[in-house]
Amino acid sequence: MSDSKTILIAEDSSVILNLTKKILELQKYRIVSAKNGGEVVKQLEAQPIDCILLDINIPIKDGMTVAREIRQHDTESIRKVPIIAITGNANNYSMDDFREAGITDYLPKPLDFDALVRTVKQHIG
Which domains does the chain have, with CATH numbers? Predict the structure, then answer.
């Protein structure tokens, strides 16, 4: 079913990254990761990515900046990748702020892993 789907997790917390990775691997997704906002576009350019889980408070370039860069990328397949924001500061942003940055959906921290799996499946199957 989802064997060939690759998810990029952009998260600087190794605890959240490892938990998220394990949960999604159990769903048969392939996981690649980025520890900071500077690595995200490089990962997208290096291999096909089906979905991005993007921490908003990530070092080097914050998630909102990274989302805008992705949406302005020269390559259409990169511009169209679903971006699911992950944030502990959802109250600092409205869904309009997320949409303006090009974010497809968002999940609040602490992560509800059932909601994580549901949201990913909703966007990439």
Answer: 6-124 (3.40.50.2300)
The token duo for 52 is 């991005």
What are the residue ranges of helices labelled H in the chain?
14-26, 37-46, 63-71, 76-79, 95-101, 113-124
Residues 52 and 83 sit within 8 Å (Cβ to Cβ): yes
Band the pLDDT of 91: cuts 50, 70, 90. Answer: confident
Alpha carbon 69 to its chain centroid, in Å, reads 14
The single-letter DSSP state of residue 90 is G
pLDDT in tens, 42-88: 999 999 999 999 999 999 999 999 999 999 999 999 999 999 999 98
- Predicted TM-score (pTM) of the model is 0.94
- What angle do the packed helices 113-124 and 14-26 form, to 10 degrees? 60
Contact (Cβ atoms closer than 8 angstroms) between residue 34 and residue 9: yes
